[in-house]
């Protein structure tokens, strides 16, 4: 038996059993699987509904934009009202969203479904992180690295498998099936949570637990205005609306001024300023996922529109990403040492981006598979190691908000990648466009690697809970 702070690392077997973990592993995969399944459905949806490529990209942006705002918001609501309640409400929304495109025709219900999916799935990750923290606090044990890695592996695997699953579903039952698949997944998570996860009332009494007064609706509105105006600007980099940056600046100034005066702010800027390691983790995640999503969506569209592969084939071309991501995440699942994996995660995309510079529509299949494999290595290591770091660096009483905010930075990268693709691809991607993406991926990886190399806090994270 060993001790970490005032908590013991054993026994934890009975604390984190299969019944407790199963619903917590299932819910968080709903957001990443929906973000990546759509990558192989954009072309079929565009052709079926007669929607141009410049418009159908809003199916990607709508979920990201909603999630970027909803993740920290629902994390904060969970910190105040209880994470289990928020988690259950989110699962109900996911199930309803999955039905919309089948029940109603046209492009509007598809967009509405994606927005609703963004809200519903955003409840999962911050709520699960809060429930894990509460579970450890109640049992007086340190959270095992394998539990945190399990959340990462769940989200990572679903993200990597998304294009493959999406392509398979589309080939078997049409593009609407990628929405319907949410219904049984959400229902299963809902039932397991109701049966196996303790009610929020059983959380330990904490003197510093947030109250209803700490929901800070003004801060949430200002945060939403800041993020939404910035992301809408990023989406239209091909025809930038510069006035949106003015809206962003005004909203951000108002947000900072408001939050600094509050006792229980929605976004604690003082904490971010004093917690350099956490802030650097957010920035590193933004850069990495800007590169990852630029490759994921750009690669999928290029493979179909320029290289001539079908939707299902495009999904399988990215299968090495799923396989290598899973292998790498499992390889480091039980270790608390993160500096090495983070350094590899930041440098591997440099190789991947360089290989993208050699892409041509006539490139052999093995070349395409090697590129996908390189990014799989990076994604597997980045997901698990950043998850470990984030959990340790987040304030205990704000784990939901801090976890949700980390996803906002991921979605900032995802939205910016959509804007980059819109500005680069035009009506259809060409070989030269993929070369531009390769340069962007390399630049992001170099900056992320710089943050990791100079971050001395990563050397000691193995010894903290």
TrEMBL record:
Q: Where in the cell is it found?
A: Cell membrane
Locate the Major facilitator superfamily (MFS) profile domain: which residues? 20-456
Primary location class: membrane
Alphabetized, the UniProt keywords read:
Membrane, Transmembrane, Transmembrane helix, Transport
Is Lipid biosynthesis given among the entry's keywords?
no
Q: Where are the transmembrane segments?
A: 20-43, 55-74, 86-105, 144-165, 177-197, 218-235, 241-260, 281-302, 314-333, 340-359, 365-384, 405-424, 436-454
- Gene3D superfamilies this protein is in? MFS general substrate transporter like domains, Multidrug resistance protein D
Q: How does it sit in the membrane?
A: Multi-pass membrane protein
SUPFAM superfamilies associated with the record: MFS general substrate transporter
- Protein name, UniProt field: MFS transporter
Its source organism is Nocardioides eburneus
């Amino acid at each position: 038996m060993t001790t970490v702070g005032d908590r013991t690392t054993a026994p934890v077997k009975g604390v984190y059993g299969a019944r407790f973990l199963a619903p917590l592993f299932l819910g968080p995969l709903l957001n990443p699987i929906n973000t990546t399944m759509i990558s192989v459905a954009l072309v079929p949806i565009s052709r079926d509904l007669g929607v141009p490529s410049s418009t159908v990209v809003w199916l990607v942006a709508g979920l990201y934009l909603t999630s970027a705002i909803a993740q920290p918001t629902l994390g904060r609501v969970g910190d105040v009202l209880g994470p289990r309640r928020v988690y259950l409400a989110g699962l109900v929304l996911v199930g309803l969203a999955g039905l919309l495109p089948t029940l109603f025709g046209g492009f509007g219900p598809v967009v509405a479904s994606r927005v609703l999916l963004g809200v519903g799935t955003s409840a999962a990750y911050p709520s699960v992180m809060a429930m894990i923290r509460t579970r450890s606090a109640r049992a007086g044990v340190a959270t095992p690295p394998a539990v945190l890695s399990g959340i990462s592996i769940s989200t990572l695997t679903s993200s990597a498998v998304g294009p493959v699953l999406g392509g398979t579903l589309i080939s078997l039952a049409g593009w609407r099936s990628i929405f319907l698949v949410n219904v049984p997944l959400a229902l299963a998570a809902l039932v397991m949570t109701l049966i196996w996860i303790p009610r929020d009332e059983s959380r330990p009494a904490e003197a510093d637990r947030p109250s209803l007064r700490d929901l800070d609706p003004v801060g949430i509105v200002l945060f939403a205005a800041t993020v939404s105006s910035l992301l809408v600007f990023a989406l239209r980099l091909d025809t930038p609306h510069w006035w949106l940056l003015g809206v962003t600046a005004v909203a951000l100034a108002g947000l900072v001024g408001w939050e600094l005066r509050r006792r229980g702010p929605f976004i604690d800027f003082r904490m971010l300023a004093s917690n350099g390691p956490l802030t650097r983790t957010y920035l590193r995640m933004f850069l990495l996922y800007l590169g990852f999503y630029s490759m994921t969506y750009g690669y999928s569209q290029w493979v179909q529109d320029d290289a001539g592969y079908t939707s299902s084939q495009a999904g399988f071309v990215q299968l090495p990403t799923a396989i290598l991501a899973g292998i790498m995440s499992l390889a480091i699942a039980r270790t608390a040492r993160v500096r090495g994996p983070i350094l590899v995660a930041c440098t591997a995309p440099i190789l991947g981006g360089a290989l993208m510079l050699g892409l041509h529509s006539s490139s052999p299949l093995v070349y395409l598979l090697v590129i996908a494999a390189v990014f799989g290595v990076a994604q597997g290591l980045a997901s698990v190691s950043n998850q470990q770091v984030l959990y340790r660096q987040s304030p205990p009483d704000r784990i939901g908000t801090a976890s949700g905010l980390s996803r906002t930075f991921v979605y900032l990268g995802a939205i910016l990648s959509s804007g980059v693709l819109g500005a680069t691809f035009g009506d259809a991607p060409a070989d030269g466009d993929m070369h531009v993406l390769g340069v962007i991926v390399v630049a992001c990886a170099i900056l992320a690697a710089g943050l990791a190399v100079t971050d001395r806090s990563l050397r000691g994270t193995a010894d903290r809970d």
